[in-house]
Structures are given as C-alpha cells and as structure tokens.
Specification:
The chain has one domain (4-129). Helices cover 39% and strands 14% of the residues. The chain contains 4 helices and 4 strands; from the N terminus they run βαβαββαα. It has helices at residues 13-25, 39-47, 69-79, 95-113, and strands spanning 4-8, 31-35, 59-62, 65-68. A 4-stranded mixed sheet has the order 2-1-3-4, with helices on both faces. The mean pLDDT is 89.
C-alpha cells in the first residue's frame, strides 16, 4: 500500500481547509501531514533540496519522489473517497496549463481566504496523521 506525506502551508486557511478535507476522506489512511514551517517539514524540504521559505505550493511526497502544484493535487484526488477523483484524468493536460490555474489561486490565497498567526495544531484524534 502506498503512503504519502503532504507538506502544507500551516498558516494558510485555504490550505488548512484542504488538510481537513483530505483527512475526512482518507479512507485508506495513506496520508500524513506536516506544515512546511514545522521541523519535520523543513527537514523534508532540505532532503529534497527544495526552498525552505517559499510556500506558494504544497508538496506531496511518495517514497523518494515528490510532486508539487497541480500534479500533487491530482495525485491526492485519485487516492480519496471523493467526487474529486473524476478530475484525475486532467493530469494528462500539459503541466504548464494545469499549473497556470493552480498559481492563480495560490498567489491570492491569503487575500481570498485569510491567514492564521500560528501553524495548525492537530486535535488529539488527528495527531497520528501529523509528523512532529
């Protein structure tokens, strides 16, 4: 069985909405999470030689490879018990086209959805899904 780690912007309300969405639909229990700003997130960013300060995308890690932007979103959708699975075939569109739309939302996410002062703190029930 595959397992995945999702690195997300811990202060972004929009990102936190999607973390909750994924947790609620992760029926196979394959996803783990870490805020990009957390120690675990920073360690994984360094491992993959990714920016430790540019949080314009979330990152999906699968084994020794990682995915960003629309590719990560489609791969996550494919694994969920959700209607979002129907969008997975769009992964065959050219990446620059897919990422153009991803970037439109990502660049405006704080303005549209707001920002927290601190990173998300998982509930007691969610703790097993988050890396320390």
């Amino acid at each position: 069985m595959n397992s995945f780690i999702i690195l997300f912007d811990g202060v972004c309300n929009f990102c936190n909405f999607w973390v909750n969405f994924i947790i609620d639909r992760d029926k196979k229990n394959v996803f783990r999470f870490a805020a990009l700003q957390s120690e675990a997130g920073q360690t994984l960013l360094k491992k993959f030689k990714l920016s430790t300060s540019d949080f314009d995308t979330f990152i999906l890690i699968s084994g020794e490879e990682y995915f960003t932007k629309s590719t990560a979103a489609f791969k996550i959708a494919k694994e969920l018990k959700s209607i979002l699975k129907i969008f997975y075939p769009l992964i065959f569109l050219p990446e620059p086209v897919r990422d153009f739309f991803y970037d439109l939302v990502a660049k405006s996410r704080y303005k549209l959805f707001g920002k927290r002062n601190t990173c998300r703190i998982p509930s007691k029930e969610e703790r097993e899904k988050f890396l320390e």
